Amino acid sequence: MRHRSLCLALFLLAGCDSGTGTPVATIATLDGFTTGLAQAFCARQACCGSPHPQDAAASGPDGGGVVGADAGSTTGGSCSADGGTTPAASSGADAGSSCEARAAVAITQQLALVSTAVAEGLLGLNPSSATACLASYQGRPCAGTQTAVPDVQDALSGCGGLFTGFIPVGERCDMTQECLSGLYCLSQGTGQNLSSIAGSASLGVCFPYQELHQPCNTSSDCDPTSGLGCDAVSFTCETPVSVSADGGA
């Protein structure tokens, strides 16, 4: 049975910095975070170019075209957040859905496991990390073709400390984010770290990372927060390692 702690009232700061110094909004729910991420995604769509012309119709040089992938508002093609004021489809019955509406659907679907874990008191969202996470995502350089909907796993990459897990050693888990600090969700089917917010079809158990000089078989055994990898010569967790490739060989 999965370990359950008391549900905590956790507050998440999110939103978009317009570059004017205006404070961002305070968001107290996962739904609020979804809205903030949808706004950030659509602000990037308006800046970098959208696969849906109606979402960036006012962003082209002549006010009627999709912005190119290198059309960011700052040097290097990065985007300056504008608070999510992406041009959207009109509200008429035949106008179709807006960028933010579609993005919110995709984000809600991809965060379904996170939402369940929060509701069960197994996972919390950290307010101190949320604003920096969204700002970092929105400030990425425009590169390649913009996707029609956000990839949440990619959007949250590099957002260290965004989640706090409450599940202890030996208890059931669906993803590493649910486990206490210093633990990871070890798939019992594949032996892999279930690091994706989407989880896996395999059951997992919260398991401790190996620390400095402790034995290992692959680098995934070692604590990444300490910068450790499995050394190919000693098969212990070290930094730096003899060979950095995963698998420690």
How would you sum up this structure, described in words?
- The chain is of the alpha+beta class.
- It folds into 2 domains: 12-162, no CATH class; 165-238, no CATH class.
- It has helices at residues 30-48, 99-110, 112-119, 127-138, 152-155; strands spanning 12-13, 26-27, 123-125, 163-165, 172-173, 183-187, 204-208, 229-230, 237-238.
- Strand 8 (229-230) and strand 9 (237-238) form a beta hairpin.
- It is globular, with a radius of gyration of 21 Å.
- The relative contact order is 0.13.
- Residues 3-24, 56-76 and 80-93 have low confidence and may be disordered.
Write the layout of secondary structure elements.
Elements: E1 12-13, E2 26-27, H1 30-48, H2 99-110, H3 112-119, E3 123-125, H4 127-138, H5 152-155, E4 163-165, E5 172-173, E6 183-187, E7 204-208, E8 229-230, E9 237-238
Antiparallel strand pairs: 1-2, 3-4, 5-7, 6-7, 8-9
Using brief descriptors, characterize the structure shown.
single chain; 249 residues; alpha+beta; 2 domains; 3-stranded antiparallel β-sheet; two-stranded antiparallel sheet; 5 helices; disordered N terminus
Question: Quick recap of the structure?
Answer:
With 249 residues, the chain is an alpha+beta fold. The chain contains five helices and nine strands; from the N terminus they run E-E-H-H-H-E-H-H-E-E-E-E-E-E.
Point out poorly predicted stretches.
3-24, 56-76, 80-93
- Overall geometry: globular
Mean pLDDT: 74
Overall domain count:
2
